[in-house]
Structures are given as C-alpha cells and as structure tokens.
Design brief:
Elements (H helix, E strand, L loop, with lengths): L64 E4 L11 E7 L21 E8 L2 E10 L10 E8 L6 E3 L17 H8 L12 H4 L10 H6 L20 H13 L10 H4 L18 H6 L3 E8 L2 E5 L10 H7 L17 H13 L2
Antiparallel strand pairs: 1-2, 2-3, 3-4, 4-5, 5-6, 7-8
Length: 349
C-alpha cells in the first residue's frame, strides 16, 4: 500500500473553461527551444503552466501532486504511461455514489505517454466548474514534447506518428469522445474498482485516500473493498473490459443507445461473475448491429466457448477501420488483452 501522505499546497495557476488555448498566430515548432512565458500569454499553452512540475523537463513533480496507477490500463499501442492527480487543499472527492465519483473544482489529472523510450505527450484534464454537466466544466489539453524533451506545446488537432514514433497524439475531440461518455465524472481510471489494490509505496491507492480522509463516504470493511468475482481468468477479462471498453459501453453513454452492452463494473454488482453487467449483457446475447468479416457472420456478442463466433473478438481483431475496437487512439491489437478474453470465452460453459 502506498504511504498515506498527501502534501497540500500547490496553488492553482489558472482556470480555463474550454479547450481553445490562446496562441500567437505563428506558434514555434514543437522542437524549438522553450522560453519564459510572457505575462500576457496563456499559462496553459504549455505543460509548464499547468503546475505539474517545477522544471520544464518535468523531472521534479510539484508538492501536493500524487502519482497513481490503476489496476488495469487502457491499451495504447505499447506506450508506457505515468499518471498524477492534484486535489485542491481542503477538498474531498464526493463518493456518495461509489460508482461515479464527483471531483472538486480545481482537480487536475495528468497522463504521460512514452513510446520506444521517447517521451511523446502529456495530457491534462482539469475540472473548472462545480456542475459536471455544465459546458466547459472539464478542460482537456494535450502537450507534445519537443525533440530534446525539455519543453512542450499544446496541440489540439492531434499528431500522427508523433516525434518519429508510431504513437498518435489524439485531438481534443478524440479526448472528449472517450471522457464525455462516462458521466458524470469524466475521469477514467481514478475510481473505486481501479484503485482498490495494494499499490507500490510511491503510488496512491484507495486505502491511501481513505486514510487521508479524502473521500466523503468511505467503503466499509477492509482492503480489498471490492474484490472481483470468479477465477483469475474471470477477473482478468472483467477488468480488461472495464478499463478498455467500459468508458463508452455503459448506460450513461450515447453508444449504449445503439449497442446496449454494459462493460463497466459496479461495486454493488460483484457477488458473482453472472451478476456483473459485463456477463449479463454479453454472454450468449445477440448483437444489435449486423457484423460480418472474413466470411464469419457474428450474431452473438459473446458465444460461450466459441471465440471464433464472438463479436467482441471479431471486432478486437478486425482489419476494418469502422469495425475495429477500441476505435479511438488505438491502431493495433492488444495481444495480452486478446489472450485474456479468449481464455475467458473458452472457459464459459
């Protein structure tokens, strides 16, 4: 378990209510030398202005910011990631609904992506208004690192094969496409089920949040507070769906109106594998959309003991752009994830 330390005192530098960062008409190239930000410039135009680090190369994280890692991560084409969160001093996360945490205004969450030893981008999501449903309540920004990794510039339209790697930086609209489909919080990965683990000493976990009195309602019992049901084969598949698919495939998303599949776990529905929304809406359920590829007509979301006729495997392995899942920010099949899902489907009666 991570040490229960939450140092507070980082001052929020700015509150923005939208994603259009102010820039000069001719912004410098991303690998240009970085200079001090002029007093009238937008402080959020570079990562340095967001308050994450005390230096432009981001080698020193500011006090009051904690690193964390969810128990399962979204597949990002082999990119490695680091994540940090900042909560304003004296605030708590509203956990009266344990399924959907409500974060205080001023919350900042960063995620850094490295591909093939090259640090490519760092993303920011920041809450600026109390009402999660208000326009501009959550601010999104993506910062591309320069060639020497000692400075960044905001990019809003996305960058393909950034910094000479196979990693694509998403556009702001791509960021919204994922985050805005998990309502009301918009935060992915920093929640009860994902943090309910014995993390390394330098990483924040659910027990640390409880010990630091940062939750308005604390889970009862002892860690693990929300153990996943079933065998290791079951839990590997369930948490994979939760992390990689549940942000779009859940009842609060518009995707659910077209494809009524629910792949997000609930703390209150973990008694048995069959009780989980994942099982109840996929196993031996008919697909809502016709899907055929390579001569296979997929009619079941998951066909028990038959992965070759299960639409989730077909879409995960698809070579068709509109069929491939996940359909945002991913270009290749996750081999470990595919192995986990194949094993689970083959284990079903």
């Amino acid at each position: 378990m991570a040490a229960p330390v939450w140092t507070a005192s980082l001052v929020l530098l700015a509150a923005a209510c939208g994603d259009n960062l102010a820039r000069p008409d001719a912004a410098p190239a991303v690998d240009a030398p970085m200079v001090d930000t002029p007093p009238d410039a937008d402080p959020l135009a570079t990562l340095a202005g967001t308050g994450l680090c005390s230096d432009r190369a981001c080698m020193q994280i500011n006090p009051g910011i904690r690193e964390y890692a969810p128990r399962a991560s979204f597949w990002d084409d082999m990119a490695t990631k680091r994540r940090w969160i900042y909560l304003p001093p004296g605030t708590k996360i509203d956990t009266s609904d344990m399924e959907h945490w409500v974060f205080p205004v001023g919350t900042k969450i960063w995620k850094e992506f490295t591909r093939d030893t090259t640090r490519v981008e760092t993303r920011l999501i920041m809450k600026t208004l109390p009402d999660d449903e208000a326009p501009g309540a959550w601010f999104y920004a993506t910062y591309q690192w320069n060639a020497t990794e000692d400075g960044t510039m905001s990019v809003t339209d996305g960058v393909r094969n950034a910094n000479g790697t196979q990693h694509d930086i998403p556009s702001t609209s791509d960021c919204r496409a994922c985050h805005e489909r998990l309502r009301p919080s918009r935060v992915l990965g920093f929640e009860a089920i994902q943090l309910d683990r014995d993390a390394a000493a330098n990483l924040l976990d659910l027990q640390d949040l409880i010990d630091a009195d940062l939750l308005t309602v604390k889970p009862t019992g002892a860690s693990p507070y929300f153990p996943l049901p079933g065998t290791t084969v079951d839990t590997d598949a369930l948490i994979y769906f939760h992390a990689n698919c549940g942000h779009c495939h859940n009842p609060s998303s518009d995707v659910h109106d077209v494809t009524p599949v629910d792949l997000r776990l609930r703390t209150s529905m973990l008694g048995t594998v069959a009780m989980t929304p994942t099982y109840k809406t996929t196993v031996d359920h008919d697909t809502s959309l016709t899907y055929m590829e390579n001569g296979v007509n997929y009619t079941k979301v998951i066909a028990s003991h038959d992965p070759d006729h299960s639409a989730v495997i077909g879409r995960m392995s698809s070579m068709m752009q509109l069929a491939f899942m996940p359909n945002v920010a991913v270009e290749s099949v996750d081999p470990a994830g595919q192995t986990a899902l194949l094993a689970w489907i083959n284990s079903l009666p």
